Amino acid sequence: MHKIIWKIHLWLGLSCGVIASFSGLTGALYVWQPEITSLLNPKLLKVKDFSKVNEKTILSSAYFLTTQNEGEVSKIFLPYREQQTISINYKDGKTFYYHPKTRVFLGEKSESIQFFETLLKLHRTLGISKIGKYIIGTSTLLFCFFLLTTGFYMWWKAYKNNLSKGFTMKWKPKKKRFYFNIHKVFGIYFLLPLLVIAFTGGYFTYYKTYKSALSIFNSSDKIVSDEEAKQEKIFSLKEAVLQTDGKYALRAIYYPKDSSRVYKLRYIKDRFIQAGFRRTKEMELNKQGKLRTISSFDFDLNSNRIAAQFYPVHIGEIAGVLGRVLVFISGLVPIILLITGFKVYSSKTKRLKKVVN
């Protein structure tokens, strides 16, 4: 049994461990995307005295800017995370940035912003269309449920009678044990963070399966809210955009892609990075002018509420700065485990060859 588990751990480490290492490195860098892009693009993303720009001004500017070239607009993003400006994605692929108060044009998307967008695509899909996300998602779940668990099983079998030894790193062991010690210590100390990151990462590929499983937490009683009472109210796009919500801030507007003339409005509880639960709301303005709530944290099913937390947990934001630091460090661990694991395997293979010869 032990030999079979060792083989599973070995071959998964040399296969999906490689992909997990790539995902970890790209994910670790992306954790600090808001701060890095803001630092590199102050003219595009930062606004002097932003705290003095009120919500009504931001909404008014957003609506005004999109009406100037409405037929050419694809999406509009209002201030969020470290971005204090308004950005508009046009159907020709260009993205322009504007001041949220003066509406002055600030510039076009920079190379550093494009770099992080590409980085995120690589993190989620390896840059391979259609099947890339399934390669990442499947490898992530194999890493979570088989590679990490088999590693823990072998650690437990070796150190269950002397746990302190299993948590201790010998800095001057014999050369052949050096890589084993690193592999052992990093593996056990980061076991739980890596399990959580890998499990939540799989959600972005298999979200339908996750939500179906999470449905066991749903209550049979439907929650009724004031939002649902507004579903039959008729709005123009202007009214929908300019109305302020004491609970949520308008984050983005997605313009119709076809003749359906359906607009999607996405809201966020806090415009800027905050520790705690992620609370969102999504509404739809259809071609009849009816503004209806699609989802809202306030009255959503428990399965949707839980699913909404996978992103902040995955990237560490749910625990604030310390959570993001932990995710950043944890993202570097898979490649350490890959290298040290390969060294251990290589060393063992050489010893076996010497015995045979």
Plain-language structure description:
This protein is α+β, with helices and mostly antiparallel strands. It folds into 2 domains: 1-41 and 114-219 and 326-357; 222-312, no CATH class. Helices cover 55% and strands 12% of the residues. It contains 16 helices and 8 strands. The protein has an 8-stranded antiparallel β-sheet. Helix 2 packs antiparallel against helix 6 (111-125), helix 2 packs across helix 7 and helix 2 (16-30) packs antiparallel against helix 16. The radius of gyration is 25 Å and the shape is elongated. This is Putative iron-regulated membrane protein. The chain crosses the membrane at residues 12-32, 134-156, 177-204, 321-345. InterPro entries: PepSY-ass_TM. It comes from Tenacibaculum caenipelagi.
Biggest pleated-sheet summary? 8 strands, antiparallel
Kindly estimate the percentage of residues that lie in beta strands according to DSSP.
5-15%
The Cα radius of gyration reads 25 Å
What structural class do the secondary elements suggest? alpha+beta
- H/E element sequence: HHHHHEEEEHHHHHHHHEEEEHHH
Number of domains: 2
- Give the end-to-end Cα distance, rounded to a whole number of Å: 28 Å
Number of helices: 16
- DSSP summary, beta strand count: 8
Shape: elongated
Helical coverage, percent range? 40-55%
Spatial sequence of strands, sheet with the most strands:
4-3-2-1-5-6-7-8
**Spans where pLDDT lies below 50 across 5 or more residues:** none
Rounded mean pLDDT is 89
